[in-house]
Design a protein that fits this description.
about 250 residues, 8-stranded mixed β-sheet, 8 helices
């Protein structure tokens, strides 16, 4: 299969019918690496691209995708939710991947990683979180913002990565509040490696420590990068991610 972007037609569902999901697939040895980008991000980002190139150079299978409403995929971002994006990821994996999977989630993708991992069951061979942000609707907004979202309003915040403010829609918030993970044991037992910068101004690094504690897995590593920011996209951060991928035990 070509490495160029392709499109997958989602099966019709109660969430609004078929949508075209953009993806890139490189065939190779397993476990297949599946990258889940963060909120309002897509598969053209630096970490996703670096992972794809690493997989190609090392003969590994790799799957990238854009969630509906993001990148080259169909849909409106305002209609997005963790549940919808989980279903898209799982449908794409079911259609395009045979054998074990390693899921790599960045920021919000680290929350989605947990939902996808639970859905994959025995197919899940490992997980890597990059500034994973589970439950961010609970700790990432003040009480005024949470009240606005609960009333069905949209909350806009300053965007340090672009000129337009970042929206959070009530639909996303309502669904996310039903997907909270850190208040209970997470029934995932595969090897996990969590990477987090201690200069992260978006996701407190102790969230990765809480996630490590919540996971049932006995094979969990947490690597804290003292001078690392939220993105962890410097050359040395990318090198750290690739070492984590290469060294993740999946037997």
């Amino acid at each position: 299969m070509s490495d160029a972007p392709q499109f997958f037609d989602m099966p019709p569902s109660s969430e609004g019918g078929a949508k075209r999901i953009a993806y890139r697939m490189h065939q190779g040895g397993g476990p297949t690496l599946v990258f889940l980008p963060g909120y309002m991000s897509d598969m053209a980002g630096g970490k996703a691209t670096a992972l794809f190139e690493w997989a190609r150079a090392n003969g590994r299978a790799c799957l990238l995708l854009d969630y509906s409403g993001c990148g080259q995929s169909d849909g409106d971002f305002a209609d997005g939710s963790l549940s919808r994006w989980r279903n898209e990821v799982c449908a794409l994996i079911e259609a395009k991947v045979s054998g074990p999977v390693v899921v790599i989630g960045s920021s919000m993708g680290g929350w989605l990683m947990l939902l996808v991992g639970e859905a994959l069951g025995d197919q899940l061979a490992g997980m890597i979180g990059i500034a994973a942000a589970p439950d961010f609707t609970l700790w990432g907004y003040d009480e005024t913002q949470r009240a606005q979202l609960a009333r069905g309003e949209t909350v806009f915040e300053d965007n340090p990565y672009g000129p337009e403010p970042t929206p959070t829609y009530a639909r996303f918030f309502k669904d996310a509040e039903a997907q909270l993970k850190l208040d209970r044991a997470i029934d995932i037992t595969c090897p996990v490696h969590l990477l987090h910068g201690q200069q992260d101004e978006d996701v407190p690094w102790d969230i990765s420590l809480k996630l490590a504690k919540a996971l049932r897995s006995e094979s969990v590593q947490v690597t804290l990068v003292k001078d690392g920011d939220h993105r962890l996209s410097r050359e040395e951060d990318i090198a750290l991610l690739m070492r984590a991928v290469a060294n993740l035990p999946t037997d």
